[in-house]
Structures
1.
Amino acid sequence: MRTLPKLARPIGMLAFLLAVFASLLLSAPAVQAQTLAAPVSASTPSPSPSPESPASTPDSFPNTINGVLRNAGQPVAGVTIRATGEGFSGETVTSETGAWTIGVPVQGTYQVELDVTTLPEGVALAEGAQNPREVTFANTSNAGAIFPLGEGIVVQSQSFGELLAERMLAGLSFGLLLALASVGLSLIFGTTGLTNFAHGEMVTLGAVLMFFLAGLGLPIWLAAALAIVGGGLSGYIQDAGLWKPLRRRGSGIIPMMIVSIGLALAARYTIQLFFGGSTQQLPGARSPQIEFGAVSISQNTLQSLIISTIVVLVVSFLLLKTRIGKATRAVADNPALASASGIDVDRVIRLVWTVGGVLAALGGILWAYYRPGVTFNMGQQILLLIFAAVVLGGLGTVFGALLGSVIVGIFVEVSTIWLEADLKFVGALLIMIIVLLFRPQGILGRRERVG
Amino acid sequence: MDFLNILTGALGEIISPTTAAYALAALGLAVHFGYSGLLNFGQAGFMAMGAYGFAISTLTFNAPFWLAVLVALACSVGFAFLLGIPTLRLRADYLSIVTIAAAEVVRYIVTTNSLTDITGSAGGLNGFADGFYALNPFPEGTYNLGFISLSARDLWVRVAAWIVVAICCVIVWLLMRSPWGRVLKGIREDENAVRSLGKNVYSYKMQALVIGGVFGTLAGVLFTLPRSSVQPANYGSELTFFLWTCLLLGGMATVLGPVIGAMLFWVVLSLTQGLLYGAIGAGYITFISIPQAGQLRYIMVGIALMLLMIFRPQGVLGNKKELAFS
């Protein structure tokens, strides 16, 4: 067993490289898609974040309603679009690329109206298309409004089954990216007992790093890979510089939890210091919809689904089949016993922190594409869903976290069929509280007294 | 840079109603965590209960001031039961996750657009404090307190807020030296030992949760009164974490600790804000902007929370033997 820790590093690196490779491979088509859909370049990233300037002109408002007007694949320029609501009204004209953006002061519900008299000859709104239509912000700072154009094109109304299938697919994608973050959190909890409130900031870090790296002009795959490396480094440094010394001192679980809250606050506002308070888009954030019959999913969401599935499978394989994976599970099960049987517990924990950082960073990048948008507090928004997923599955169990994430992801998306979009996280949190009532140890947790 | 202004501003924070609200909410946390060992990370939710319970009953149902306060308190008791029933039997870290989640649920619900008529969604509510200011016993005029001069309205809100804080401090002091308080401390130290003495641990914890939550709710009312407005964005998890910082600054198993912690917290925040803004305005500091200086202060709070927890977990006043964790 003495040789076991020595294996930790190479296998960890292997897992990591595999993950990077997988994401590399799969993000290549995204680059092409991005260049094809290039006209929408209103939100190309710039390395210098725009400062929060006082909202004097509509464009400087923190929240935006936007869309792209196309007719038969061709952009439609010069069409007036108006947004009114929340005591505000703004107007814009679509650009050469058909893109339009209206800045609004507060997130809320707006009536967006397309001025049909400004449409060019021979172009009309599709039959059945709502105009004006209602747009509601869903906890993000941008909301989209699509006006389907084209003479005689009828907007397809989806049946409930199709809608459900579509939401389930999107939810699965969301759940799996959630799983990336929650597996890391669960591993850290399992091996150290720490409920890491700073995990959300590790998620943000991945997306923000990618944004800055892409802003430097790096290709999308390299930026993603480096951001993921950065995430892993942050996990490694955190453990080496903070958590290991605290464990040495024999700090209790609750003090460490409060330290993690302090770290989360400090990290969140450090990120805001450099990134600013606005929402920025990663390259290729707008992607075409792919249709499977009546079910449509955006290309980014589909790619995110594939990437996270592969990474989750790789992590599961490593945990179940490799020596270091078994060692990790042994430490999670009983650190003292694991230590007595020759496992270098500190080394396993260091690896867990590093892998946790890697997974969180990847999750952050995918979450930035899913929302879409990068903000300094995006990790904070997802943190409670991660907690919900982990508690639902059973604190400290890796596969419980995975299952919990998928349930939470699907639940969040499916609930938007009935719930307002800005309440979609509420359902998932309530589900967590209800599950705790009846099965405190979570779905896959072992029965033991948790009181 | 006007040092005198910055200094008096910081001193004014000692008696500001916001400080009183923070002190009271942190006192609630002291009952929860310092005395009972309950890890409540949802104090912002209790404060939101107070703020919205008061504002909605005043605006939507035209309730008089006292009735509105009672409604807010009833909401908070209900919220405490809702939180306590599923989680008080569980380990401390479960309670922390559920309370923070419940507080966020409250915030999402008051922010949602579907309830705009009642909650005002993201814009919040305002103009509901007339009932409170109608009770003002001070005649119109300016009152000079030496370093700060206040209008009758400002004086009344400060006096009322600190009277409430003082009453609550006395209540906590009396409660914690009673047999009931000793059982609570016993639960904090060793739950099973207390259970073996035949005490109903679950019921005691629930009572502590309700009492601390009621303090949080009163704090929520105090918090909204000076501005007469409530904004949902103020009741995020950051608020809870700031309250924890106040609690840990002062000392968690003490009566006056949370009050002193809140005063220290606001004086330091006000001083650093004044100095940073002044230095930026005067051109001494050029590498950060005004909003960045605001973020710098929050970074400081985060680092202070970490350092406090690592190096002086008992806070300014606390006794190291009385820590809810060892």
Note: Chain B has a mean pLDDT of 90.
2.
Amino acid sequence: MTPHMLTRSLDRGATIFLLVVAAIGVLIPLSNLLLPTGSFLHVPTYLVALWGKYVCYAILALSIDLIWGYCGILSLGHGAFFALGGYAMGMYLMRQIGTRGVYGNPILPDFMVFLNYPKLPWYWHGFDMFWFAALMVIVVPGLLAFCFGWLAFRSRVTGVYLSIITQAMTYALLLGFFRNDFGFGGNNGLTDFKDILGFNVQADGTRATLFMLSCLALIIGFLICRSIVSSKLGKVLIAIRDAESRTRFLGYRVESYKLFVFTVSACMAGVAGALYVPQVGIINPSEFAPGNSIEAVIWVAVGGRGTLVGAALGAVVVNYAKTFFTSGMLAPYWLFMLGALFILVTLLLPKGIVGTFNSWWEPWKAKKESAAEVSAAAEDGVTEPKMAE
Amino acid sequence: MNVMDTRATSAMLYLDGVHVSFDGFHAINNLSLTLAPGEMRAIIGPNGAGKTTMMDIITGKTKPDEGTVLFDGVTDLTRLDETRIAELGIGRKFQKPTVFESQTVQDNLLLALNVDHSVKGTLFWRGNKAESERIEKVLEIIRLTDARNRLAGSLSHGQKQWLEIGMLLAQDPKLLLVDEPVAGMTDVETHLTAELLKEINKTHTVMVVEHDMTFVRELGVKVTCLHEGSVLAEGTIDQVSSNDRVIEVYLGR
């Protein structure tokens, strides 16, 4: 990222968003760690973990908005990349347990002892090192997305057909990870984590740090997405979204562009999953469930497709609502409410929360600006039209 | 190495014995046509004559079943895809104006400029003076300077047609394929478009598909009439429009 890309990417909305995330990222952990438990402003640890989860979902939503909102690729399988990143982190955490497991085996995680694995499968090697696991968090989802995208985009699979095969992809992974002989703990998944980089995952300090890191990842992810969409490449992506074949006739290699954003997006989803796992303490195949991926798309639709800020906001709002409603007597009806929410947003707020806000705010702002320009023009004579960047 | 030695033909565009059928329907049937460098050619023909299919073949959207399509005497277009063909220098304006509606007029032209179209090139792109000047010039030619910051979707139909022609100019191809440029335009706009195309033709080879005979007459160029996927008649507009077979296919037997 070069400086001009960064400055170009920061408009007012983006700056406000970054400041808010940074403030939350600092204030919540501080209040949790420094204020006394009885204090009115004290944030209890369970809330830190819960909000940490929301922040990870926001990163996932951001990654979906990058491809769906700007390039028109509706992936209904992004939960798969999130889960793969989560599994990579889970494998590291499993290897950290060592002899503290139920069976006390220094090498094999409990489920392998239980399932009579003679030795560690080859693909578990290296995960005892954090740097390797962290690399895999990005490489595995990225590689899968690259191979999947290479085949799909080159064959010009688009629209609903692409959505269906992404669903099939995550479903296939779901079935695979459910199997005990797949080597990832079957339907129980990976859990019972002890520590991360030597720190106890249950400790308040670790949770606060993980929360802070999640906010940092959200900020970095947001900056990457903004840099992409505010570059000329972003204009090409929108061109592909709106008129794909026209873009081809202008001499753009559409499949390369799609492959690029799809892979970047999958890597981001992987990072989100990796931050999610230590905070919730478990990763199991249900994270691959097709429903999860669809739900993530709903967050983006609710918040506002093609706005980035809206995607993050939508993830937090919908998940907050989910926590709120599923913990009360309305719990059995949550799915109906989610469905109703999606229908209502599609009918009443087709641009989502942020998109609707923008379409109210921007004409007003433009009016104010053009008025200012006219008065400025009157003062200096002629205004030079500048090329928009 | 002299390129002229390897040229199979001196023509800018050379089609010979091209066949295409869709599920048994012969859309293009033994079509042969040549376009000299710097020429402007009008293509007419009744609905279903294969005009748009021919453009699809030239731009790589449709692959012919058999036949030769040579660009600039050396390049076999039947082996290449749309992107590669656009890179070689063939630009296309669609029948229905296709501009990027959610982007500004200026950005539409920026996207069309024939500069680095790679992922890396566009990601790290920074505007430069030469590019802005070219955009400025095209805006002037297509008379949209004042509308530069408007969204392309908010333009009138005629303005969209012009913007698309402007995008072709920004692309600066060797060969322009223009499909029905004056459909839905007023008489004044039609006249201005004819002037614009004549101006463009001074530096580019152009192929225009059009139904509007007044417009074709105004262009004053060689006319090719297609019928059932092959050339029926070729010559000046007067020769072609007085040709008995042309009258027959236009009016029905």
Note: Residues 69 and 305 of chain A are 5 Å apart (CA to CA).
